[in-house]
Amino acid sequence: MQMKMSKILSPFKIIVFSYIAAMLVFSVLLFLPMSSQDGVSVSYSEALFTSVSAVSVTGLSVVNVSETYSSIGIFFLAMAIQLGGIGVMTLGTFVWMVLGKKIPLSQRMLIMVDQNQISFAGLVKLMRGILFVALGIELIGAFILGTYYLNYFDSTLEAFYQGAFGALSAFTNAGFDVTGESLIPFVDDYFVQLVNILLIFAGAIGFPVLMELKEYFSSKNSNFRFSLFTKITTSTYFIVFFIGMIGLWLIERTEFYDGMTWHQQLFFSMFNSATARSGGLATMDVSNLTLASLLLISGLMIIGASPSSVGGGIRTTTLAVMFLTIRSFAQGRSDVKVFGREIHQEDRQKAFIVLSVFVVGLFASIILISAFESSSEVALMAIIFEASSAFGTCGLSMGITPDLTLPSQLTLMLLMLIGRVGLVAFLFSIRANEKKTHFKYPTERIIIG
Amino acid sequence: MQMKMSKILSPFKIIVFSYIAAMLVFSVLLFLPMSSQDGVSVSYSEALFTSVSAVSVTGLSVVNVSETYSSIGIFFLAMAIQLGGIGVMTLGTFVWMVLGKKIPLSQRMLIMVDQNQISFAGLVKLMRGILFVALGIELIGAFILGTYYLNYFDSTLEAFYQGAFGALSAFTNAGFDVTGESLIPFVDDYFVQLVNILLIFAGAIGFPVLMELKEYFSSKNSNFRFSLFTKITTSTYFIVFFIGMIGLWLIERTEFYDGMTWHQQLFFSMFNSATARSGGLATMDVSNLTLASLLLISGLMIIGASPSSVGGGIRTTTLAVMFLTIRSFAQGRSDVKVFGREIHQEDRQKAFIVLSVFVVGLFASIILISAFESSSEVALMAIIFEASSAFGTCGLSMGITPDLTLPSQLTLMLLMLIGRVGLVAFLFSIRANEKKTHFKYPTERIIIG
Ligand SMILES: [K+]
Ligand SMILES: [K+]
C-alpha cells in the first residue's frame, strides 16, 4: 500500500500546495492582533484575502493597508509578497531537487543547458542567480526611490521605508501600497512613474529573460543567442504595451484627457498600459475612465505578463501562439513558424488549453459574482474589471472589492490562486499520471466552426 | 496574365461573396418604396441592416417588421431568410460543381461517401435532399402552426400567414417575427412554444445530422452507424441546452420567477435556453432578467449551434473539442479521444483558431461599440448582449440596437456576416493558396501559461 511520495505528489502539486500553505500561514500572521494598528480589528476573512492577494502578488485589497496594519503587519505583508514574487522559480527548482524528478521544461530552458548536464551544484547556482537578480533589482530600486523620496518625506527612515516597499511592490508586480493611495500622490512626478514602470517591466518580463540578458552582457561568448522564448515573450510584451498605450490615448483624448497637456496624456496612457499587465499600481482612480478604456484595461490584465515571471494572465506566449496560429492558417500553412523556428505542437496545444480554461473560468466567475451580488446592483463593468484583475493577478481595482459579499470574495481568491500558479501548472497539479495506451483509436474528422 | 477563375476565387471566397451579394440585393429590394407600408419611410441603412440580419438569419432588427414592411417587403424578407437559412450547404455544393474542385470535407461527410465515388448525379441528389428536408420540415411546421393559429386569428389567411412565417423563422433560426412582438403573445401557450422549440432544434442541429437521421430511419442497412460528427454535435447541443435551462432556473427562481408556477418557470427556462442557441425568438422581454442570466444567455449565444446548420456561434464541436482537449490533458494523454474515435490534429487546431478569433473579435467589437456609444451611456450588459447576439447570429435583443449609432450598427452587421459564414470558412476565404515549403525550421520549445 505504500507509494513513493514523488508518485503521489507531482512537482506541480507541490507548487500548488506550497502556495496554499503560504497563504494560510500568512493569513494567520496577518490576523494576529499585533499585526494590526491599535484600535483596528481585522476579521479573518480580511486577513485571508490580504494574504491570498499578497502571496499571489495581485494587490487587490479589502482594507486600506496603511490605515490597517502595524509595522509588524506590513513586515509580514512584505514577506508574503517577496515569497510569492520570487517563489515560483525557486520553489520549482527546490521541488526538483527534493524529488529528483526530471527537471521541468521551464527550468531546463532557464538555465539553457541540456538536462543531462544539470548537476546539484548547477541548481544551487541557478537559485542563487535568481535571488541575486531579484534582490539586486529590488535593492537598486529601493535606493533610487528612497533617495529621491527624501524630497517628499520629512524623515530619512520614512523615505527609505516608502522607497523599499515601493520597489518591492513594483518589481514583484504586487501593486500593494503603504502610501494609502497607491502612486496617486506622484501623478505629476514622471521620474517616480518611470522608475516604477521599469521595475514593473523587470518583474513582468520573466526570469528566463533576465537570466539570458545577464548571460548576454556578462559572458564573452560570441555564440550566444537569445532563446525563442525570450524573443517571443519580449516582443509580445512590448507590442501589447504599445497597443494598450495608443488605444487608451485614442479612446480618452476627447474624454478624460480632454484639456490635459500632451505629457499628462502620454504618462496616463503609458502608466496605465504598463501597470495593467500585472503591476496593479495606479496614478489615478481608474473609475474615471470611460467604459471602452476599462474594457481595454481588462483585456490587458487578461493578457498579462511573461510566463515564469511575477505577472499573471494568459501570458504573452499564449497570445503570441494564438496569433501565429491564425496567421499560419490564413497563409495556408499547417506549421507555425516565427523567428526562424517552429513552435512545437505540444506548446500550441497548451496555448489552446490555457485560452479555453481562462475564457471559461473568467466567464463563469463573472456570472457567479453577478449572481452573488444580485441584490446590490454592482455594475457589470466593475465585476468584469475586478475578476480580470484577480485572474490576471494585476490588482487594479474599481473599488468594489471591499464591498463584495464573502462568496464573491472567495471567488476572487480562487482566481488569484489559479492565476498565480498559472493555468498549465494548475492543470498539471490536478493531472493524473501519464498513461501510455498501447492501442490507438481510428481518427475521424468532424466539422469545426 | 490570365489565371483560372478557380485559382483566384476559392470556394470559400465564393461563399463569402455570395452572402455579401445577397445582402446587397435584398437591401435594395427592402429599400424599394413598395416594400414599406404606406406612410412609412425606410432609410437605406435600415434596409441594409434588415437585409444583413435576414440573410445571416440573425433576427436583430432596427425596425418593427410588422409595422414597417408591406406584404411585398415581408415576402422579400422571407426570401432572404430562406436563402440565408438553407443557402450555406447548397451554395457550397453548387460552387463545387461549377469549379470542379475537390469536395470540401463538410460535404463529403454529409453525403457519407468517399469523394472519389461522388458523381454529378449524386450531388444533385444531395441538393435535392437538403431542399426536401428543409422545405418538408418548414411545411409541416407551417401546417401545424397555421391550423392551431385558427384559434387565435379571425381569418384563415392570417392564421396560415402567421403559421408559415413563424415556421420559416423558427426552422431557419431567423428569429424575425410578424406578430410585432415575437412570441410574447404565446407566453402561456406551451403548445406553440414546444412546436417552436422543435423547429429551432431541427434547424440548429445541422443538416448532416438530419440527413443521417433520414438515412437511419429510411434505409434497411443494418451496418449504419452515426458519424463522429453527429454524435459529438448532438450530445453537446443538448448538454448545453440542459445546462442553460438549469442555470437560468437556479439564477431566476428567487428573482424574475418569484411567485410563478412550476410550469411557467420550466417553460421560461426551457424556451430561453433553446432560443439563445441561435433561434432568437422570445416569449418575454429579456431585459427583465437579472445580470447573471443575461450573461449566461450571452454565453449560450456565443456557443451557438452545430456547424453546417442555420445557427451560429463558435459551434458545438468547437466547445466539445475545447473540453475534450482539457480532459485529455488532465488525464495525462496527448491525444484526444471520444466515442471510440480520435479527434484529428487539424480539427483541434481549427477549434483553437475559431475560439481565438471569436474571443478577440467579440472583445474588440464590444470595445468599439462602447467607444462609439460613449456619449449615450448605453449599459455595458446591453452592448455585450447585442454583440454576442450578432456574432452568434442569434437575434435576441435587449432593445438597444435601433438606437445605436451607425458605426455600431455597421459593427453588428460585420459580426452577423462573419458569424453566418462561420469563422473557419471566413478565414479560408481570406486565405492564401497553400504553400508547400521544402525546408523545415528547427522546432524550439517555449513556456506557455
Ligand atoms: K499585481
Ligand atoms: K437567429
Task: Name the features.
homodimer; 449 residues; mainly alpha; 18 helices; 3 strands; disordered N terminus; binds potassium ion; transmembrane helix (chains A, B)
Describe this structure in words.
The structure is a homodimer of 449-residue chains. Chain A is mainly alpha-helical and 449 residues long. The first copy, chain A, has one domain (10-429). Helices cover 63% and strands 2% of the residues of chain A. The first copy, chain A, is built from 18 helices and 3 strands. Chain A has a two-stranded antiparallel sheet with strand order 1-2. In chain A, helix 6 packs parallel to helix 10 (207-218), helix 8 (156-171) packs across helix 9 (190-204) and helix 9 (190-204) runs parallel beside helix 12 (262-279). The longest helix of chain A is centred in the N-terminal third of the chain and has 30 residues, at 120-149. The first copy, chain A, is globular, with a radius of gyration of 22 Å. Residues 1-8 and 96-118 of chain A have low confidence and may be disordered. Strand 3 of chain A pairs parallel with strand 2 (341-343) of chain B. The structure holds potassium ion (2 copies). Residues 57-59, 173-175, 278-280, 393-395 of chain A line the site of one potassium ion. Residues 57-59, 173-175, 278-280, 393-395 of chain B line the site of one potassium ion (K). Chains A, B: It is found in: Cell membrane. Chains A, B: One of its GO terms (cellular component) is plasma membrane. Chains A, B: Its main location: membrane. Chains A, B: One of its GO terms (biological process) is metal ion transport. Chains A, B: Keywords: Cell membrane, Ion transport, Membrane, Transmembrane, Transmembrane helix, Transport.
